[in-house]
Amino acid sequence: MEFSMRFSARPALLSSAVTAGLVAALLSFGAAPAGADPGFYEPPSPLPSGADGDVLKTLPSRFNGAKSTRVMYLSRDTANRAIPVTGTVLVPDKAWTGPGQRPIVAYAPFTAGMGDQCAPSKALAGEGGDLVSSFQSSFVSSLLDKGFAVAQTDYQGLGTPGEHTYVVREAEAHVVLDVLRAAQRLPGAGLSAASPVGIAGYSEGGGASASAVELAPAYAPELDLKGAYVGAAPADKAVLAKSLDGGMYVGFLGYSLIGLDAAYPEAGILDLANDAGKQLFAEARTTCTLDGVLKYMYRSTGQLTKDGRPVSAYLEQEPFRGIVAANRVGTLKPAAPVLVEHVPNDDVIPSGIGKQLGKDWCAKGANVRFQDIPSLSPIFTHVLGINGAQGDAANWLAERFAGKPAPGNCGQF
Questions:
Q1: How much of the chain is helix, strand and coil, in % rounded to 5?
Q2: Are strands 149-153 and 82-92 parallel, antiparallel or unpaired?
Q3: Which residues contact 220 (CB under 8 A, 6 or more apart)?
Q4: Is the distance from CB of 203 to CB of 111 less than 8 angstroms?
Q5: pLDDT tens across 129-153, in order?
Q6: CA–CA separation, 129 vs 114, rounded Å?
Q7: Which intervals of the chain form a coiled coil (predicted)?
Q8: Best label site of 24, 266, 338, 406, fewest CB within 10 Å?
Q9: 76-117 pLDDT, tens per residue?
Q10: Please, what are the domains in the chain?
């Protein structure tokens, strides 16, 4: 059966009743209770020496249909310093019936927020996050249903001390690749260094997946990487600095500035803010996704800087221009076949960014397939794109683990 036929049965439109229900839920949903085991997220001091991906501690977790274990593991930040990162390793209860050893898929979560209470490992266990976090569980379940083990990272600074380096290319690539190593080394998980691996992510996670697959040859060449799914990736921050400003999702631009400031403190990014901007950043650091959207929607960044210029204007000068260039994804050839997807009318990350990412990789000789995710609704198109993305990711990776050819379509999009 051809790839395009497998997904043709998805509905073209979401019913108006479902859409209305989602709107109501987005406006009324409250946060889940705080995590029950805060001590787990405190790293040992001093941080033990070890190899990237070494497991520092574990904590039994919970997730329907799988043995779930929270892990703290070693990784590296953008400056190549050792850091502790948390996440979850999930091994499905169902037996693996495919060829070889059970595969492991690194799940790179989409935007969970900036506060420690938003860490995806807490949300998966029902201990934190917000309504948006429930979509994380759905994506993970789609992978577990295929019999894959799932290694989910919290990213740098989510749960653990310090700021979350939101959409920072190297930092996110490192933690995604190292959570795969951690899963392979986790005692009692039934996984090993010989386990084949894949990567999947959407939105922030799509950027992290894309970053990981193109940095894997240098950072984690020993991994038997079979493929990566990249959904709605924020690959070009310069474009997003303009498209998000003043819109409903400008809070994500604030998250990006906090993340870049954490990775590049010498640039003094947040020093450009006026008092209103400093207050926004201080508050945004503690929010989860939904709160971050609703609190700051339609704010213009020119109202938050000392000289009244928008953020995009600063990005045209050094050192900010160099930082943005260093965090553009698509500059290296991916190590494995890649499926890149985007909703054509994405209301958060313009679909042209995803298409350009695919073209950039094609120009380097990579095996890339780009396709649209059918829009389910005229509103919340980015969020609802997850519905199609999770099934496409699971099905496409299943074919890679089965050893089937990965047909690309470079030059056709």
A1: 40, 15, 45
A2: antiparallel
A3: 52, 177, 178, 180, 181
A4: yes
A5: 887 777 899 999 999 999 999 999 9
A6: 10
A7: none
A8: 266
A9: 999 999 999 999 999 999 999 999 999 999 999 999 999 999
A10: 25-236+328-401 (3.40.50.1820), 238-324 (1.10.260.130)
